[in-house]
Amino acid sequence: MFAAYAMSIGVGDPATNYTVIIDTGSSNTWVGATKPYVTTETSISTGEGINITYGSGVVLGKEWLDTVTLASGLIIHNQSIGAASNATGFAPFEGIIGLGPTSDTNRTVFNETTGSFINGTIPTVMDNALAQGVIDTEVLGVSFSPITGNNSNSSINGQLSFGGIDQSRLVGDVTYTPRTSKWPASRYWGIDANLTYGQTALGNDSSNSGIVDTGTSVVVIADDLYDIYLDAIPGAYYDNVTQLTAIPLDSVSSLQNFTVYISGEPFVLDAVTQLLPADQNVEAGGVVGLRYSYITPLGWNTTSGLFDWVLGMKFLERYYAVFDTQNNQVGLAYTNHTFAAVS
Fold first, then answer.
1. How far is the CA of 77 from the CAs of 131, 266, 286, in angstroms?
2. Angle ∠(72,335,55) on CA atoms, nearest 5
3. CB–CB of 316/251 below 8 Å?
4. Which of 2, 7, 178, 211 is most buried, by the most CB atoms less than 10 A from its CB?
């Protein structure tokens, strides 16, 4: 199974190109995981260090200001860039482009003399793009589409729109919802939503809060919500090898819609779109005689005081997503591949 969506960015002048994970679930941009950061005449050391913790690993290194090239005509100057000296859990990628809210950069830079974290945020790529007139509005449109075939690592099937949305990529209107005020989802692109599986509510009557995150591979829900999902599918279990939900073939026909209600509008993963295509089983580490669902447990319950779910790339392959800093909101829209079968 494809682990992440990535893009190539240039750092410095002349630029060194790095393949970095596209991550709306974090906000710092850094390189050096598998290819060292290369300084040029545009590189300015801040004299500070970086220490960033992710779900997949930890990054340590130094902070620089440098020129970042996103694409032709999308060039940002004096952007904070982390040069990793120690980065685990990110291979084969060479870094991350952080497209989350500015708030998530707080206490990611530290004083190398004292070792103390510095309170305060640093401008993100999107912040500087707006400030330097590279984009007219701080809006990011994300279009992914389902991966086909059993060689998913070679697929190029996404588009980022910096400074707006691409209407040709969506069907109908965008449904917007404000960023949540509930901590800690409020630190990220977090929103309130109601989840159901079939006719069964996942959670209480009030909205759960969660995160819309391009850097998470699948859909993860709080463990008590996951237990409801699992119990409704005969013979299903969490598979530690694939880190997906294994489903016996004779239970596939009983799968029901997994629905996320945002501002009252339903965004559905039907039976087909919940499942890894069968011809990708082996690549994901699975076996031929099972099917595998992208809906998996988060690792804590809704009573933990943390966020309740994450809508990752397997959800976002079915919907167009808008991350609107200007209006402090997230939007979703249907696409031509929302319900398309993939083989």
1. 10, 41, 45
2. 70
3. no
4. 211
Q: How far is CA 55 from CA 89, 101, 299, 309, in A?
A: 9, 17, 11, 14
Q: How many CB atoms lie within 10 A of CB 239?
A: 19
**What is the residue whose two structure tokens read 């209480």?**
204
Encode pLDDT of 243-289 as tens digits.
999 999 999 999 999 999 999 999 999 999 999 999 889 988 999 99
Q: Report how far residue 262's alpha carbon sits from residue 264's, in angstroms, rounded to the nearest whole number.
A: 5
Q: How far apart are CA 257 and CA 269, in angstroms?
A: 6
Catalytic residue among 66, 213, 308, 324: 213
> Are 73 and 94 in contact, with CB atoms under 8 Å apart?
no
DSSP string, 7-41: EEEEETTTTEEEEEEEETT----EE-SSS-----T
Q: Is 279 one of the catalytic residues? A: no
Q: Are 152 and 5 in contact (CB under 8 A)?
A: no
What are the chain's domains? 6-131 (2.40.70.10), 169-334 (2.40.70.10)
Half-sphere exposure of 25 (CA within 13 A, CB side): 21
Does the annotation mark 239 as catalytic?
no
Global confidence as pTM: 0.94
Q: Which two tokens mark 22?
A: 């596209």
Which helix (H) or strand (E) covers residue 315, if one does? helix 313-316
> What would the pLDDT profile of 73-118 be if each residue is shown by its tens digit?
999 999 999 999 999 888 899 999 999 999 999 999 998 888 888 8
CA 17 to chain centre: 22
